[in-house]
Write a structure and sequence with these properties.
Blueprint (H helix, E strand, L loop, with lengths): L7 H12 L12 E2 L15 E15 L2 E17 L4 E12 L9 E2 L6 E7 L2 E2 L2 E5 L12 E5 L4 E4 L1 H6 L4 E10 L1 H19 L10 E14 L4 E13 L6
Parallel strand pairs: 1-2, 8-9
Antiparallel strand pairs: 2-3, 3-13, 4-11, 5-10, 6-7, 6-11, 9-10, 12-13
Length: 246
């Protein structure tokens, strides 16, 4: 794998820009940068913000007569959100699973617990009614065509007749999640973790950084003076000849 001479903080910036969706749909500019966000001088429209900082590089010779270096890179990724600055994120046709008449098959769950559910579908046909209940213990025995979802866990509850009728059909759902403050930071941290885990082997913007390993996922206490929430990820990467190419 031969890669260009790009500094690793820029590589990670490019990778996250290519793979993350901005929850702040009202802006058109970039929101991910290779530095710590300048929080004092940024207005509400500039949040949330993500910054990438290189913490350390270390290396070993690849062989006695080989000058190339096999390197370890430690990176800090800071996610910053402003208090009171929230955004609604719509997830369209999220894959919930496949209906099955097996044991406990009526339990499916959202990746992120939504604030409202627009629809639940079997294949491409919507169920007639989607009803929210407070907790799983509030689930009832719904009639055919009715789906319940738990506001506390995001689990779904189907009618027994529908489980039989739509056996083997794909279940999808469109939902809306409101993200603000700590919840927004948590959401973006999980999205970053997911894209590193699933995209690093195939996405060309990762540009030679290998084996992303999560070291820490740290929520930072609320900064009252600046009105900011923050979450910090630390990652380790393997690479060859960082910043020089191979």
């Amino acid at each position: 794998m031969t890669k260009a001479k790009i500094e690793p903080d820029r590589i990670i910036t490019n990778f996250l820009r290519a793979n993350l969706s901005d929850p702040n749909s009202s802006r058109s500019g970039q929101w991910i940068y290779p530095d710590f966000p300048r929080v004092e001088s940024l207005g509400d429209a500039s949040f949330p913000r993500i910054g990438i900082t290189i913490l350390s590089e270390s290396s070993n010779m690849m062989g006695i007569y080989d000058d190339n270096q096999y390197e370890k890179l430690i990176v800090q990724i800071d996610i910053v959100a402003k208090k009171g600055n929230g955004h609604s994120v719509t997830t369209t046709d999220e894959a919930m699973g496949t209906m099955s008449s097996g044991v406990n098959s009526n339990r499916m769950t959202f990746e992120y617990v939504p604030n409202s559910v627009t629809n639940v579908k079997h294949t491409i046909t919507s169920f007639g009614t989607v009803t929210g209940v407070a907790t799983n213990s509030a689930f009832t025995t719904p009639s055919a065509g009715i789906v319940e979802w738990s506001i506390s866990t995001g689990d779904l509850n189907f009618a027994a007749a529908d489980i039989v009728s739509y056996d083997t059909e794909a279940i999808t759902s469109t939902s809306i999640t409101y993200l603000e403050g700590k919840k927004l930071c948590q959401y973006l941290a999980r999205e970053i973790i997911k894209v590193f885990r699933t995209q690093w082997r195939t996405d060309t913007t990762i540009n030679g950084l290998r084996h992303p390993t999560k070291i820490n996922n740290i929520p930072i206490p609320f900064d009252e003076d600046l009105g900011l929430f923050r979450q910090t990820l630390e990652y380790e990467f393997d690479a060859f000849n960082i910043g020089e190419g191979l």
